[in-house]
Structures are given as C-alpha cells and as structure tokens.
Automatic annotation (TrEMBL):
Keywords: Antibiotic resistance, ATP-binding, Kinase, Nucleotide-binding, Transferase. It comes from Paenibacillus aceris. Pfam families: APH. It comes from the Bacteria. InterPro entries: AGP_Transferase, Aminoglycoside_PTrfase, Kan/Strep_kinase, Kinase-like_dom_sf. The keyword Nucleotide-binding applies. Residues 21-244 form the Aminoglycoside phosphotransferase domain. GO terms for molecular function: kanamycin kinase activity. Its EC number is 2.7.1.95. This is Kanamycin kinase/aminoglycoside 3'-phosphotransferase-2.
Length: 259
C-alpha cells in the first residue's frame, strides 16, 4: 500500500507494518491486516461516498469498550476522499472457517453463547437506535437513492426489484419488538473463536437497539449457508429460544436485503 497517500497522523501509527488485503465479506470498505510489529492491527479504508460510514462503527466500538470483547480503536480520520479506521486485532479464526466442521455442535453452542452475551448488554442509555421505524426509514432512503444491490438478493428473491420487496417490508411489519442490544450483522465471519471458544466480535457498524430477531435471523441464515440448516436447532437450543417465530425470521432476512 505504499502507493496510497495516507493522512500524516495515520502514517505515524502504521509505519513499518506489512499490509495484507482481506477479501472475506461484502463490505464497501477495503480491509487490511497489518503485520510486522509486536501486535497486529486492522485498517478499514472507505470512500466518503459509501452508503454507510466507518464513523458509525468507530462510535459503536468506543461505546462497547469494557462491555464486550471488541477491537479497540487506535485511529479514526478522514481526508478529501476517504475515511480510515485503525483497530486492534481480535486474535483467532472466524466462525465460518471450514476447520470447524469437525466440531459443529461445540461451534453452535459458542455462537449461541456469543449472541446471548451481546443481547445481555443493557439497552438503557444506548445511543444507537435500530428499531423497525428507523430501519424502515433508512430502507426507503436507500431505495430512493439507488443504493440497494438487487444482484445480491437471497436466492428466493433473485430477479425481483427493491420496490417489489419494499411492499412486503411495509405490510408485513411485525406488530411487536422484543428489544435488546443487537450486533446487527451476526453472521459467522463476524464471530472470532480462539481455542474453541468465542474470543471476540467484529464489524459493528450496524449495532444498536432492535428486536433480537435482527441477529437470530441472520445467524440462522449464516449457519445454513456455511454448515447446513440441520445445525440451526442446536444453536437455537443453546441460545435458549423455546419457540422460533418463523415469521420474524423471514421478515428480518427480508430487511437485510436493503442493507
């Protein structure tokens, strides 16, 4: 990355590191692992014109310090074109890695343990609102601005338009919300394990107060995609969910098409 001009105050932080591009995930940001010093760092670089701002993740990471094992922010800044977020590494291997295929019951239990820990963060005083009315307003904005990636829709919605899905999003809105603090994108690549146990969580840009099904729905989809839907029930049992609300699962998976 020596050909990229970085803000001078950021360059002082990362002098001497070796850059490794990370391609896992669908983020708009460019993510790099920085190695070569006593401890590794991660940096995200993203255009100021991107749909979501790295500032959102920075604010949430700062708020979460001492509450959950999350990266520590070393630097956040902007220049005329980009914003930059420099963080510590959560050591371990993300939960989507195929090395976990030999320990799937334990993995499902750890995913449930991790999600319970997230949902137990008190919502009182949380400044990040992702209740349905807020999410619906943001979804409508993204449709109007042409920000919804229709090519990335789940298989059962291939070929549909964002406007088509928006009708269902409005008319199938759940009448109640079981509000907790949510990760917002509780997918397997965002959960880091070390020595077989959850060691931390990454990618917090969508975290906030929302229905617990915001996380449950995406976890269910991610487990099915990575290891097979037959393992979902083990996860739900370990989480402690007595009865699954399939309607809410489908709704929050639909909502995710807009984000």
């Amino acid at each position: 990355m020596q050909d990229m001009t970085l803000p001078a105050d950021l360059s002082q932080w990362i002098d001497g590191y070796t850059w490794h591009r990370i391609t896992l995930g669908l983020s708009q940001s460019q993510t790099y692992l920085l190695t070569g010093a006593s401890s590794n760092l991660y940096i995200k670089i993203q255009s100021l014109t991107a749909v979501e701002s790295l500032l959102s993740e920075k604010e949430r990471l700062v708020w979460l310090q001492g509450k959950l094992p999350v990266p520590e922010v070393f630097y956040y800044g902007q220049d005329e074109a980009n914003e930059y977020l420099l963080m510590t590494e959560i050591e371990g291997v993300n939960a989507s890695d195929k090395s976990y295929s030999m320990m799937l019951p334990q993995l499902m239990q750890q995913l449930a343990y991790g999600l319970r820990a997230v949902h137990e963060i008190p919502v009182e005083g949380c400044p990040f609102d992702h209740r349905l009315d807020t999410k619906l307003e943001e979804a409508q904005r993204r449709i109007a601005c042409g920000f919804v990636d229709e090519d990335d829709f789940d298989q059962q919605r291939h070929g549909l338009k964002a406007e088509d899905l928006a009708h269902d999003l409005l008319h199938k809105k759940p009448q109640t919300e079981d509000l907790v603090f949510t990760h917002g994108d509780y997918c397997l690549p965002n959960i880091i394990l070390k020595d077989g146990k959850v060691h931390g969580f990454i990618d917090w840009g969508r975290a906030g107060v929302a229905d617990r099904y915001q996380d449950l729905a995406l976890a269910i989809r991610s487990i099915g995609y990575n290891f097979g839907s037959e393992h979902v029930q083990t996860f739900l049992n370990a989480y402690g969910l007595k009865e699954l609300d399939e309607t809410k699962v489908q709704y929050y998976q639909l909502m995710d098409e807009f984000f």
